Amino acid sequence: MxxxxxxxxxxxxxxxxxxxxxxxxxxxxxxxxSFRRLAAAGGVTPATLSYxxxxxxxxxxxxxxxxxALDRARHAAWRARFDGLxxxxxxxxxxxxxxxxxxxxxxxxxxxxxxxxxxWADLMLRAHVDEDVAGLVRPWIGERRAxxxxxxxxxxxxxGAWAEAILAxxxxxxxxxxxxxxxxxxRLLRRMAIERLAHRLAPAARGxxxxxxxxxxxxxxxxxxxxLPGPEAGSDLLxxxxxxxxxxxxxxLILDEGAEAVTHRAVGERAxxxxxxxxxxxxxxxxxxxxxxxxxxLVAQNRAPAPGEDSVERRYAVVVRGxxxxxxxxARDPSLAAQAIDLRRLRGENLFRTxxxxxxxxxPLDGQxxxxxxxxxxxxxxxxxxxxxxxxxxxxxxxxxxxx
Length: 404
Description:
- This protein is an all-alpha fold.
- Helix content is 69%, strand content 0%.
- The termini are far apart.
């Protein structure tokens, strides 16, 4: 296909169909990429769609090619925007990250890249479970990494580490910005995290907006949106029985197929029970998704096993793919905003307890920033096929100013 310029009627038709597929994927997820649905959305027959674009994977490949071209143009504009800046001090770095996230969540009509950000998030997470998609996404991640390295090189100490940290942070926070970016309390919470990140958690830079009292007050203001259980709180999903089994099946679906896959029928098939039994225990779709989300959180707290083969890395996959998939679903469906904000405000609670030994100056906001970077790094590693070593090296670098 051609991205710009003069094209033949055939390539114009293909470009129009790719644009339709892009919108369907962005707004409805990969399930919308069936030939029947795409043909209906594009106003053509399935045979016409097949003639122009071939298989479903060829459609995804054409989408990624077009998105990478748009990304390159967007990043060229960002390089030009900062041409006159010789050094990124913490305020400049914070402004850069905040503006980048806001542009990624803004509608295209307002000069933003929202549809592209939704496509990026969907395919980044889908690459965890689909090697064909992963093969398309890995070069895209490489280009984004190269952008950050190029932008920061010579303008900040440890430019390579900063590039990895910002790439990872944006992979997580970008999804939450898509879901709750218009909400003032979320924006304030995000600003606190960005400022703390820009100072690399340095204790000397604390106070003001990022002070412990202000952070705690904001978290309390957001607590609880849907009442996920804290680390010491009880949960009926911990008790053996049908409700726990169904919630575990919902958690597995979130992990393997994304939050949009959580329906009574699909969960029933995964749990081996009729859909009516699922509906008896969790009446509505939001009730069922909340149960799956609660199970994600219980796994993150190490109070419940991960679905399937339980292991440290499988539990981490539940945290990464489970939480980000719910955030992505909320970006598409505003009625799920409460689910997304609960997962965002709880970022770092468990990691704070893990990191505190040997880091007495660590604060809850620090734990949240490290969690955002670590989960984003996990999302990228899941797409690229990397193990935990790079993620751990990034966490160690970020927290080194807090070492006792």
